[in-house]
Design a protein that fits this description.
Elements: H1 8-15, H2 39-43, H3 48-63, H4 67-79, H5 84-93, H6 96-102, H7 109-117, E1 121-123, E2 126-127, E3 140-143, H8 148-157, E4 167-170, E5 175-178, H9 193-199
Antiparallel strand pairs: 1-2, 1-3, 3-5, 4-5
Helix pairs in contact: 3-9, 4-5, 5-9, 6-7
Length: about 200
């Protein structure tokens, strides 16, 4: 399945808040559907499969990746030593587009992806136009001179009081640095990674 390009509020109404996916606020507090909320929908029990599926979908939509990409990350996390769920989240968090979003250079992860593809961002003083590129400790992220105005507007709009501990940012020069691999407890996304791993356990 390719990257999702449909209505984003429909997804957040179904799965819950996904700040990296969209900045729009939900007005309707019930799941999407033609006839609105009804008693059958409210009373319906949720199966174990649906719970795991929803957690997996949260991960997919938040980071803006396809089903094939997510399964590739799962296989990579399984090959590494450690807890598979935590390693999976670390791999996703260290993607280039997510680092750009975390630094405040863009309001959402999809917009960060657009900045990267259009060549506005430099990684270690080189243009990298691959959103899925895995950032490493000591990587330096900077902005092309003719793109500074766009990024400054985004940084000014975003509250950077709670910058993740694995990142540093010089707000005057707009230069970011990756200090280390992010720790599981520093990941802000509210998700049960164990359920995602269980969802793929039979594959």
């Amino acid at each position: 399945m390719s990257r999702y390009l449909g209505p984003r509020l429909r997804i957040t109404r179904r799965l819950g808040a996904l700040p990296g996916f969209t900045k729009k606020q939900i007005k309707r507090k019930y799941a999407p559907g033609q006839h609105g909320p009804n008693k059958k929908q409210i009373k319906k029990t949720t199966s174990d499969y649906i719970i795991r599926l929803q957690e997996k979908q949260k991960l997919r939509f938040y980071y803006g990746i396809s089903e094939k990409q997510l399964y590739s990350y799962i296989k990579e996390a399984r090959r590494l030593k450690g807890v598979t769920g935590s390693l999976l989240l670390q791999l996703l968090e260290m993607r280039f587009d997510n680092i750009i979003y975390s630094l405040g250079f863009s309001p959402t992860i999809p917009s960060a992806r657009q900045l990267i593809i259009h060549g506005h961002i430099l990684l270690n003083n080189k243009t990298v136009n691959i959103p899925s590129f895995q950032c490493k400790p000591n990587d330096i992220i900077s902005i092309k001179e003719n793109s500074l105005k766009i990024i400054k507007e985004n940084v000014n709009k975003k509250n950077l009081l709670f910058l993740p501990l694995h990142l540093d940012l010089d707000q005057k020069k707009l230069i970011g640095k990756v200090n280390s691999i992010i720790l599981r407890e520093d990941i802000s996304l509210n998700i049960n990674d164990l359920l995602v791993v269980e969802f793929y356990s039979r594959k």
